[in-house]
């Protein structure tokens, strides 16, 4: 058997962003895997509360006061009382890669009983190419033991850089409120041993519970929108970021992977509370999906920021009539990019070097 | 006066009624146990679980009675709860080898319910050896010629393409086709996979090509659509094609196999997923199922390499027809699924030897893929036949200048549709 080179740890190139409003006890279980890395904790809710971080972790913590102080008036784009606030962590990070995880997600076990190092798998996913232009029926061809199948064009076998690695969840699956109400006892027990690239032109629901991305390639697109307190909608933050990100990745020739790694999702949120939050999203979604499916970004949008700003214009133009919320959201998207560029000056002018645009 | 029932027989009556709740019979005296066993038999209540209970007592009388009566535990494949009418399915086998005995025996438990169409590769001389106990029809070179005509045709049914003749003459709704060098595989729990049942399940449950579900097939037991999946897209569309996978020898091309001669696919990925609309994929003909009513005419045996051979990696006929089917499914709003079931693919042949032949398939694929990716059919094309004709015209116009093989492909596609119409109408006339 061919020897496999070990996955680089990347401990100085990756930040772990964790939004929390309760506590960080879950970090104890992750200690063997997370301890080498720097954590960015975004504390949501009451800033006067002290969130205790377990000893031995290297971290920086931001509460609402910090966010307001750092961003000033631009802080309006960061949600309050919703895990969407996590995107502040992406903005303030200086690293190349981000891994974000929810505080009710624990280490899962694979079918052999071995504990899954989710972070290591995300790194593997991000460091190997994606294949968005042609679907490989044996899934990720760069995984050990797999390859491109017969009929896969050779010219497409180099792949493109991977911008996003979307992981999955065992135990409590990420269902919406109506499904939770109908199937409160359903647990995801099926371990699907695959990673695959979401094809170009295809949208998917991106869940923020177990997510990693290349901040240099796609960071500015990972804005999690206006959710929570004072907003008409919740639990669509990651969905919004996912649709924007996918559209921009497709435009810039970057790849998005989904599948492994699994984490163990322990907490089922209250479906009635969820229903209230999601309610508007469920029917707005019917307008949003056709919008994103038909978005066309002009060729001269060659950076993520330019793409995102163009997207915000189209949101205002086409979705403003669905609800005034989208006008506010479009403005917030612009504020987000302005804030991003302020906090990340060197990336503002850099053209993203990436694969061929198809 | 009628004799009153004995206490023993009353007890046995009650035991019989509650047999399903009893977990241990070893405490029963032998004569009672025997009486219970005989009554169970007479009442028709001897299920697998209850038989095991009796066997577990270890009592000689019971065991010898079981072997005298030739009572056997039969392992039946786990069938899906969807009601498949056996008469809606044809299993089409392209015979590239004469002796199909071990192949058919290996698949007996799965195939024996269904009708089989076995098409002998017209280049294969000799008589096929097929074991008994199956319901099948065999088609040979002479049969093919009588339908197609021995002159012409641009449609060539030799080698792996012989199976398309089976697709043509079938009049069932679902067709499952497996290469004759594959046997049933085992899943991750060590159980034999009923590939036919899985293909049928795939074809009978909706597909979801317009939005990707991150938990894969949402209609599978134990899973569903995830948060963020638009509700209006949750009823799905009909599935036209089901592409299965292979353990052991995966369907790699010759260069890949030559580079990695020892690589075997041991990863069992427990998922079926819909390949999204407008995403192209390489469809392998080794292990497929399709809805003949929906996409039959789109399964075109049109693309033959000049030096096409008798090993899978010396052909691309299925890749071509697969891309036609995908474009057509995308246009007509049908789905294409990929993933389960797995079959176990045996090894034969030497990929390096194949490399020595001129590898034109690789070159041609490079031209072909952009063509299919950008292929758009007109609104007027509303049947699979219409779509194939339009595609044939586009192939002629855009690909023929690149290589003469495309001119032949285009002609074959047109010819195929003609054949399809003739044969289908003949069948429906005779059935009427």
UniProtKB/TrEMBL annotation, chain A:
Biological process, per Gene Ontology: cell wall organization; plant-type cell wall organization or biogenesis; UDP-L-arabinose metabolic process
Site location (Required for activity): 150, 157
EC number: 5.4.99.30
Residues glycosylated per entry: 150
An annotated GO cellular component: Golgi apparatus
Keyword entries, A-Z: Cell wall biogenesis/degradation, Glycoprotein, Golgi apparatus, Isomerase
Subcellular location: Golgi apparatus
Domain of life: Eukaryota
Main location (coarse class): Golgi
A GO molecular-function annotation: UDP-arabinopyranose mutase activity
Enzyme class: isomerase
InterPro entries: Nucleotide-diphossugar_trans, RGP, RGP_fam
Catalytic activity, reaction form: UDP-beta-L-arabinofuranose = UDP-beta-L-arabinopyranose
Name of protein: UDP-arabinopyranose mutase
Biological classification of the source: Eukaryota, Viridiplantae, Streptophyta, Embryophyta, Tracheophyta
From TrEMBL, chain B:
Subcellular location as annotated: Golgi apparatus
Signal peptide range in chain numbering: none
Pfam families documented for this protein: RGP
Major location (coarse): Golgi
Keywords of this entry: Cell wall biogenesis/degradation, Golgi apparatus
InterPro entries membership: RGP_fam
PANTHER family named among the record's database cross-references: UDP-ARABINOPYRANOSE MUTASE 5-RELATED (PTHR31682:SF4), UDP-ARABINOSE MUTASE (PTHR31682)
Homology family: Belongs to the RGP family.
Protein name: Probable UDP-arabinopyranose mutase 5 isoform X2
Naturally occurring in which organism (per UniProt): Coffea arabica (Arabian coffee)
């Amino acid at each position: 058997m061919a020897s496999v080179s070990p996955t680089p740890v990347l401990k100085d190139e990756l930040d772990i962003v964790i939004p929390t409003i309760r506590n960080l006890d879950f970090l104890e279980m992750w200690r063997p895997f997370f301890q080498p890395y720097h954590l960015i904790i975004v504390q949501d809710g009451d800033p006067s509360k002290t969130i205790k971080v377990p000893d031995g972790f290297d971290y920086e913590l931001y509460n609402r006061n910090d966010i307001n102080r750092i961003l000033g008036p631009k802080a309006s784009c960061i949600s309050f009382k919703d895990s969407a606030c996590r995107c502040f962590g992406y903005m303030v990070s200086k690293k190349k890669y981000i891994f974000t995880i929810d505080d009710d997600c624990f280490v899962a076990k694979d079918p052999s009983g071995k504990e899954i190092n989710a972070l290591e798998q995300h790194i593997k996913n991000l460091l190997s190419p994606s294949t968005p232009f042609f679907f490989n029926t044996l899934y990720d061809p760069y995984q050990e033991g797999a390859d491109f199948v017969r009929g896969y064009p050779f010219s497409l076998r180099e792949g493109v850089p991977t911008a996003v690695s979307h992981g999955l969840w065992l135990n409590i699956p990420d269902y919406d409120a109506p499904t939770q109400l109908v199937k409160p006892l359903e647990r995801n027990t099926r371990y699907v041993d695959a990673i695959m690239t979401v094809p170009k032109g295809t949208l998917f629901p991106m869940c923020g519970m177990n997510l990693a991305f290349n901040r240099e390639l796609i960071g500015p697109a990972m804005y999690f929108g206006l959710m929570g307190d004072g907003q008409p909608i919740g639990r669509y933050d990651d969905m919004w970021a996912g649709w924007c990100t996918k559209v921009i990745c497709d435009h810039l020739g970057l790849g998005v992977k989904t599948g492994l790694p699994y984490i163990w999702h322990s907490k089922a949120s209250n479906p009635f509370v969820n229903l209230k939050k999601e309610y508007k999203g469920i029917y707005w979604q019917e307008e949003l999906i056709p919008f994103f499916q038909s978005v066309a970004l002009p060729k001269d949008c060659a950076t993520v920021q330019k793409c995102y700003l163009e997207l915000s214009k189209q949101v205002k133009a086409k979705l403003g009539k669905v609800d005034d919320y989208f006008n506010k959201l479009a403005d917030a998207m612009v504020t987000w990019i302005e804030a991003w560029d302020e906090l990340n000056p060197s990336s503002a002018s850099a053209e993203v070097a990436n694969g061929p645009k198809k | 006066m009628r004799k009153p029932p004995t206490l023993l027989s009353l007890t046995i009556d009650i035991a019989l009624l509650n047999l399903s709740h009893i977990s241990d019979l070893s405490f029963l005296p032998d004569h009672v146990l025997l009486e219970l066993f005989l009554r169970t038999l007479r009442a028709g209540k001897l299920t697998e679980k209850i038989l095991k209970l009796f066997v577990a007592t270890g009592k000689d009388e019971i065991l010898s009675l079981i072997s005298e009566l030739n009572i056997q535990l039969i392992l039946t494949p786990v069938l899906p709860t969807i009601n498949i009418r056996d008469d809606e399915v044809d299993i089409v086998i392209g015979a590239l080898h004469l002796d199909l005995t071990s192949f058919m025996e290996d698949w007996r438990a799965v195939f024996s319910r269904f009708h089989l169409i076995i098409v002998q590769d017209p280049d294969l001389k000799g008589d096929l050896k097929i074991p008994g106990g199956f319901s099948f029809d065999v088609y040979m070179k002479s049969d093919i010629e009588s339908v197609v005509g021995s002159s012409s045709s641009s449609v060539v049914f030799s080698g792996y393409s012989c199976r398309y003749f089976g697709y043509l003459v079938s009049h069932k709704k679902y067709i499952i086709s497996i290469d004759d060098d594959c046997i049933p595989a085992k899943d991750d729990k060590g159980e034999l996979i009923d590939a036919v049942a899985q293909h049928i399940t795939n074809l009978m449950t909706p597909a979801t090509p317009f939005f990707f579900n991150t938990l894969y097939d949402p209609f599978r037991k134990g899973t569903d659509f995830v948060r963020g999946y638009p509700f209006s897209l949750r009823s799905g569309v009909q599935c036209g094609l089901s592409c299965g996978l292979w353990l052991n020898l995966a369907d790699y091309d010759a260069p890949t196999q030559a580079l990695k001669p020892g690589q075997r696919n041991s990863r069992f990925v427990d998922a079926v997923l819909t390949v999204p609309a407008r995403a192209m994929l390489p469809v392998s003909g080794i292990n497929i199922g399709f809805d003949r009513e929906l996409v039959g005419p789109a399964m075109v045996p049109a693309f033959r390499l000049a030096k096409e051979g008798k090993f899978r990696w010396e052909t691309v006929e299925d890749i071509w027809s697969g891309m036609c089917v995908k474009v057509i499914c995308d246009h007509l709003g049908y789905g294409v699924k990929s993933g389960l079931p797995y079959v176990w693919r045996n090894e034969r042949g030497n990929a390096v030897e194949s490399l020595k032949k001129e590898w034109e398939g690789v070159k041609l694929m490079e031209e072909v893929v952009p063509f299919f990716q950008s292929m758009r059919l007109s609104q007027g094309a509303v049947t699979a036949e219409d779509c194939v004709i339009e595609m044939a015209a586009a192939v002629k116009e855009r690909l023929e200048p690149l290589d003469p093989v495309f001119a032949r492909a285009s002609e074959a596609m047109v010819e195929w549709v003609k054949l399809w119409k003739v044969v289908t109408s003949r069948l429906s006339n005779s059935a009427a």
